């Protein structure tokens, strides 16, 4: 999803760098139109059950943060299972390409279960890049 948003120059709507202008600002209409597109794209990429739980979000950044809060948590038990699977993995009669593809899938699964690091130095507005 991030790649699609980047390719359309819309990633700023989910990471908060494109802030909502005041309703009296001439840029508000354009911002609202783009935000609506991004919210629609995000909602259409979700399963029906998940979309129902976030349908009330009107801004892309709120929707993104809500999803991140709900689904991006570390899971130590699953990480341990994946690491065990990784350590037990053997090439056997797999080609090097198939073996590497399976290893890479496990590595990506492990990365997806690790919690997002939290910024501990910046308080009001993160400027270290870790909070984004």
From TrEMBL:
Domain of life: Eukaryota
One matching Pfam family: Retrotran_gag_2
PANTHER family: CCHC-TYPE DOMAIN-CONTAINING PROTEIN (PTHR37610), RETROTRANSPOSON COPIA-LIKE N-TERMINAL DOMAIN-CONTAINING PROTEIN (PTHR37610:SF55)
Protein name per UniProt: Uncharacterized protein LOC127748535
Species the sequence originates in: Arachis duranensis
């Amino acid at each position: 999803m991030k790649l699609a948003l980047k390719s359309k120059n819309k990633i700023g709507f989910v990471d908060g760098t494109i802030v909502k202008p005041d309703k009296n600002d001439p840029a508000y209409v354009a911002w609202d139109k783009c935000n609506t597109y991004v919210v629609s794209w995000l909602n259409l990429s979700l399963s029906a059950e998940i979309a129902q739980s976030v349908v009330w979000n009107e801004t892309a950044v709120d929707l993104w943060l809500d999803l991140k809060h709900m689904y991006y948590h570390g899971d130590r038990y699953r990480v341990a299972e994946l690491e065990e699977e990784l350590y037990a993995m053997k090439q056997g009669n797999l080609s090097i390409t198939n073996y590497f593809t399976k290893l890479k899938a496990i590595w990506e699964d492990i990365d997806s279960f690790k919690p997002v690091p939290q910024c501990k130095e910046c308080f009001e507005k993160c400027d270290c890049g870790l909070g984004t």
